[in-house]
Amino acid sequence: MKVMLLNAQGYKDISPLVASITWSGDLQQAARKLEVNLAVSPHDAYLPKITIGLGNMLKLQTDDGVELMQGFVFSQQMSCEGNELQLTAFDGLIYLTKSQMSYNFRDMTAEAITRKVCGDLGIVPGNIIATGINQSCIALAKTGYEIIKTAYTAASRQTGKKYLPMMNQGKLDVIEKGIVVAAYELNNKTNLSNASYSESAENMVNRVVITDEKGNIIGRVQNDQWMKDYGLLQTIYQKEMDKDAAAAASSMLQDLERKASAEALGNTACITGKAVEVSEAHTGLKGRFYIDGDTHNWKNGQHTMSLELEWDNKMDTGGIADAG
Predict the structure, then answer these.
(1) Sign of CA dihedral 175, 180, 184, 185
(2) What strand order describes the sheet that includes 234-238?
(3) What is the rounded CA–CA span in Å between residue 271 and residue 267?
(4) Rounded (5°) CA angle 31-182-11
(5) Alpha-carbon distance 249 to 174, whole Å?
(6) What are the structural domain ranges in the chain?
(7) CA torsion sign, 150 to 152 to 155 to 156?
(8) 178-200+256-324, superfamily in CATH?
(9) How many CB atoms lie within 10 A of CB 71?
(10) Model pLDDT for residues 115-160, shown as the tens digit of each residue
């Protein structure tokens, strides 16, 4: 694994100084994070001296040159007695999460809203998935990421698809979450060192009552089997103008919350937003799971990873009525 530093002369390979690397992502975190520990010493004349400032760009790439992340240094830490410089960098999504904006959007698609936000913040748009669904909304003092997330959550209620903004080679993509399956099966015979799972009915919703703007009930959607098995767990959906009320209400039904975690030999294809096949005999975990959190570590020549897995494909809605 290589770490490159962008300076006035271009990219400089600082990998020989790297003691350890942690590369991580999380559905709730938005921006991917890169933590690098560099060997430094004021007393070792043979150790190259390096200057890194806040805002400098780091690039993480594989030994054969495949880029995994472009990150901007947001913090660094070192003590006079220590022999390591600790750097923390985030990809370009950090600027969308740190910058507030205000808009009044009328009859614009989520993809058009995203391009507008990107343009105003100087973010280069990449592959922005199309929804074709016009919407109108007011965003007051919301971060760029919140605005994009809100727009795609509204679209998700109509399409049933789950969306995820992510950076790719310095550009913002919005992808359909969970469609890409990592070409790497996790199993306890070859690469899986530990796995666990849990399930809970605490956040289940098995009936959604649809009301008009005055609170009059005009319909409902429900899952009869869930109601039989776990009892009635109900929420309300107020019909929105120009929205398919049944589709929107159906997207609010919530099954059991099942979570799993896995620790395994690392593979860079296993990142948040993708799916992965798992086969683990002891816990009974078997099938396709969605990666909602990942942490990759490189140290002493070994690559390991920890994954947070979900049975169900979910979006980060950030408190907005869940898109399923």
Answers:
(1) positive
(2) 217-222, 207-211, 234-238
(3) 9
(4) 50
(5) 24
(6) 2-91, 95-176, 178-200+256-324, 202-255
(7) negative
(8) Bacteriophage T4, Gp27, baseplate hub, domain 3 (2.40.30.150)
(9) 27
(10) 999 999 999 999 999 999 999 999 999 999 999 999 999 999 889 9
pLDDT tens digits, 71-112: 999 999 976 666 889 999 999 999 999 999 999 999 999 999
**To which CATH superfamily is domain 95-176 assigned?**
Baseplate protein-like domains (3.55.50.10)
Instruction: Name the residue with tokens 């990449």.
Output: 126
Q: Residues with Cβ < 8 Å from 27, sequence gap 6 or more?
A: 164, 272, 292, 293, 314, 316
Q: Which CATH superfamily is domain 2-91 in?
A: Baseplate protein-like domain - beta roll fold (2.30.300.10)
d(CA 165, CA 149): 8
Radius of gyration of the chain (CA): 22
pTM: 0.84
Instruction: Give which of 68, 154, 70 is closest to 111, Cα–Cα.
Output: 154
Q: Do 96 and 134 touch, CB atoms closer than 8 A?
A: no
The DSSP bridge partners found for residue 71 are 58
Indicate the helix (H) or strand (E) that contains 249.
helix 245-250
Which region holds residue 45: left if phi is over 0, alpha if psi is between -120 and 50, else beta?
alpha
252 close to 197: Cβ distance less than 8 angstroms: no
